[in-house]
Amino acid sequence: MSGRRGYALPAVEHACEPAWVAPNPVTAGPLRGEPVARAVFDGLPARYDRLAYLLSFGQDRRWRRAVANHATAGAPGLVLDVATGPAGVALAVAARTGADVVGVDLNEPMLRAGLPNVRRRSVRGRVRLAAGRADQLPFPDATFDAVTFSYLLRYVDDPAATIAEMVRCLRPGGTLASLEFAVPPQPAWRAAWWGYTRLLLPVLGGIAGGPAWYQVGRFLGPSISEHYRRYPLSSHVTAWQAAGLSAIGFDLMSLGGGLVMWGRKSPATGTAGQAVPGSGS
Ligand SMILES: C[S@@+](CC[C@H](N)C(=O)[O-])C[C@H]1O[C@@H](n2cnc3c(N)ncnc32)[C@H](O)[C@@H]1O
Asked: Which domains does the chain have, with CATH numbers?
């Protein structure tokens, strides 16, 4: 045995150790939580926007625009976009209004991928990005006129608490608007969605984006299904109401593959109204 500290085993014994490969947090359970959120997006930032567009058949931009439309309906002056990634929704909001927008995300590399976009002349100086966690936002109560988030709730340990934290930062009368993937409710479309997410998505992801996107392709479908098994749509609505939102509405987009929700912060909690499904599109 070597006398040097830190070398307890001779080389030959190391060679006899069975090879151990760390489980891949993207495809080995659990499917949610901060370590998963960090691991999933580790290799994605460089091509995130382009591949998200391709793999959703161009739907995700349309869905983000719908969120931005709801968030800007009240002509907000200051907007917070949580889980902003490369700032897609933040930019869509800024493009529609003269609002200042703050984008917050857990992953610094995702934020860095958005920097060239937020420096574009049309929005320069109006979109600022900061590292931060959705469940512990670094802002005082009632700071923002509108708050948006997209593709976030599958990653957090406690979706209801995270919604409450975002509503805390919203001024009374302000709008919360969100986008999440969803499971199509109609059986034939659900079967097609299942086939796409379980079989085609990993393959297309791997071809277009390499190993990191193959892993994400494998992760995405089970993560969406698991999320709605634990938190059906009705529980999302309940969480929004419990957080003090009223005039809650939602649209199932593109045959149910996307869920856009919106609501208004009540002047006082406890006055939440019923959720109204929109027309869908
Ligand atoms: C699929 S991306 C969506 C990015 C962007 N919203 C969009 O529409 O393209 C999900 C983002 O959520 C972020 N995220 C996950 N959990 C988070 C948390 N607890 N707090 C803040 N950001 C989080 C990830 O870092 C990632 O950038």
From this structure: 34-186+231-277 (3.40.50.150)
